Amino acid sequence: MKLYLDTADITAWHKCSLTSAIDGVTTNPALVAECNKSYETVLSEFSGVIDGPIFAQVTARTASAMIEQANRYHQIHSSAIIKLPATEAGFTALAELREKPISAGITVCFTASQAILAGKLDASFIAPYVGRMNDNGQDAVHIVKQILDIYDAHEFDTEVLAASLRNATDATELSAAGVDAITLSPSVYESYLHHPQTTASVTEFHQIWEDAHDNADQ
Ligand code: E4P
Q1: Which of 170, 181, 113 lies closest to 141 in space, CA to CA?
Q2: Which of 22, 67, 130, 147 is the most exposed place for a label (fewest CB within 10 A)?
Q3: Where are the domains of the chain?
Q4: Is there an atom of ligand 1 within 6 Å of 127 CB?
Q5: Average pLDDT over residues 125-140
């Protein structure tokens, strides 16, 4: 299973990637806008430091403009993975891009039917937006499990990348269900690292260890 960090902030990347558990980065226009940088700048910054996948989302609205943007991203980083929205323009761009040596998939997915279209078009990934589905009153975990079943039953190669995850509970349930990848915001990633009982138990071990050595020294 791949684990990605969902950020456009290179400082957050440096901080979270210290454990080396993270395989790459996913970005989107909102995350890039928060950094007050151009998409191209963010992509260049990450290209210099990340070995693994870097996902870059198009901001264009028409299929032809999306394809141009995908080409530009590809020139900046030849293994950038292009995120196209699950819209008519996005699916049209995907169909054209699969004729080129550019890896592209579908993001902002809210339904299993969008995932079927992505699978039919050989998308490299489908990114169901778990948190936003739940916000919308949908049962996101159930829908992502349906997508996994459909891809399995029909042998689609498209990878399922669970995105828009707001908590570790949904992320771990979907990991257990067999998603190919998850992307976590730096704060949800932090919640993977820390548990108060782990901190308390480690503190207790340190205390016992130090007491035992103090006694041995006397
Ligand atoms: C995934 O690639 C997206 O960048 C992301 O997970 C969107 O999540 P949001 O709902 O927190 O914006």
Answers
A1: 170
A2: 22
A3: 2-217
A4: yes
A5: 98
User: pTM of the predicted model, to two decimals?
Assistant: 0.94
Residue 97 in this model has a pLDDT that exceeds 80? yes
pLDDT of residue 218: 64
What mean pLDDT do residues 6-30 have? 93
Asked if 202 and 195 touch (Cβ cutoff 8 Å), the reply is: no
Q: Helix 140-153 to helix 112-120 angle, to the nearest 10 degrees?
A: 30
Mean pLDDT of 61-85: 96
Instruction: Find how far residue 179's CA is from the centre of its chain.
Output: 11
- Mean pLDDT, the chain, rounded, equals 95
How many Å lie between the centroid of ligand 1 and the Cα of residue 142?
19
Question: If you take atom 2 of ligand 1, which residue's CA is the nearest one?
Answer: 26
SS3 call for 25: strand
What's the CA-to-centroid distance between 163 and ligand 1, angstroms? 6
CATH code of 2-217, in short, is: 3.20.20.70
- Residue 2 is a catalytic residue: no
pLDDT at 20: 83
Selection from 57, 48, 74, 38 nearest residue 183 by Cα: 57
Q: Which residue has the tokens 């299929």?
A: 63
* Stretch 143-155: mean pLDDT: 98
The two three-digit tokens of residue 152, written as one number: 């399995």
User: How many A from CA of 28 to the centre of ligand 1?
Assistant: 7
